[in-house]
Amino acid sequence: MTARAAERNTHKTGEAVAALLRQRIVRGELPVGTKLPTEEELTERFGIARTTLREALRILESQGLIHIKRGRGGGGTVTMPDLARLSEAFAGALQMRGTAFADLDTARRLIEPELAAWLAMSHDEDDLALLAAAAEAAEAAAQRNDPVAFATAASRFHILLLERGRNTTLSLFSQLLNQLVEHRYRLGAQRASEQLLRRAARSYAKLLTLIAAGDADAARTHWQQQMTYMIESAPDELIDYYDGPSPKMPAQRNRRAKAAPQA
């Protein structure tokens, strides 16, 4: 077998092993936090070489399903896939298509008011307590004209609304979209006037009242209006998720051997 054929075989077998472990993870047979067996145990169980096993684990780690700790006492631990990692790939796909924030905000405006309505129809005391704490923190920050603290409280209120909207698929998708705009709107909140901060804080309090009253239609309408106001007050521009400073390349080592000093 040629070296290239052996490499292809290792990759193919690694994918098969990764698929078997992935099935056990997503079915809950290996819950989040579970430490995987050692390399010795896994290679013996699957009858594969270490290189093939490491290929399988690398695949699972790239999918966010495990975290691998290197070194002595290390190994793989099952994790919940991180939305931040998913949002990076999604942001890249949107940015390469020249997508504007207005396009993304239109999608958010279709989803989030529905989550607010569903939360009004089905909520518990924990939901109300957490939303109330975030709304009160936003109100307090607005009263003392503290835009940084307000941005933190507003982000908390918004994320709670998405997390507790009683529809897992829309909730996760909406959180994914929110990952792309959160930094932008945090900056906007930090630059907002005291009047705008107080207006937003009143809006959060009103939504909380509507949710607590179980008024789904009014909660939906109110959040649509709030989102429309905030979206239209922000300038439209193309998505630029990777808008930070360009990373510096690591210093290149001089691979040329230094000439020996002359005697």
Which sheet architecture does the biggest sheet show? 2 strands, antiparallel
In CATH, the homologous superfamily of the largest domain goes by the name: GntR ligand-binding domain-like
Mean pLDDT: 86
Strand content: under 5%
Just give the CATH class of the largest domain: Mainly Alpha
- Based on CA atoms alone, the radius of gyration comes out at 25 Å
Provide the number of structural domains. Answer: 2
The shape is elongated
How many beta strands in the DSSP annotation? 2
- Sequence of secondary-structure elements: HHHEEHHHHHHH
Give the end-to-end Cα distance, rounded to a whole number of Å. Answer: 53 Å
Q: Helical content, roughly?
A: 55-70%
Word description of this protein:
The chain is mostly helical and 263 residues long. It folds into 2 domains: 10-78, Winged helix-like DNA-binding domain superfamily/Winged helix DNA-binding domain (Arc Repressor Mutant, subunit A, Orthogonal Bundle), CATH 1.10.10.10; 84-232, Four Helix Bundle (Hemerythrin (Met), subunit A), CATH 1.20.120. Helices cover 67% and strands 3% of the residues. It has 10 helices and 2 strands; from the N terminus they run αααββααααααα. A two-stranded antiparallel ribbon has the order 1-2. 24% of the residues are buried.
